[in-house]
Amino acid sequence: MNIDDAANLLKELGHPTRLRVYKQLVKSGKEGTPVGELQEKLGVPNSTLSHHLSALISVGLIRQHRVSRTLYCIPEYDLLNELMIFLTDECCVDEK
Questions:
Q1: pLDDT number for residue 94
Q2: CA angle, corner 18, sides to 13 and 8, nearest 5?
Q3: Which phi and psi (to 5°) does residue 71 adopt?
Q4: Which UniProt keywords apply (predicted)?
């Protein structure tokens, strides 16, 4: 991961509503959460939630998967792990 990719991910997570959405999805596990359930848990209007989900999808932090009529949002844990590694990769190298 390069600095521009990391900055882009952090920019999208920098919005309080998107961060709440992402945190809720990370809690849900690899099965994800149906959009309707996510909307209910967070109390975010549908159009607002859709806007924030689109932003998270655009940078690859989540993906969506349809099962019949239910649309699931699934966190991309690999990308989250890459971001965490990028942020901590050089931890304490300048420590004396």
A1: 79
A2: 30
A3: -100, 120
A4: DNA-binding, Transcription, Transcription regulation
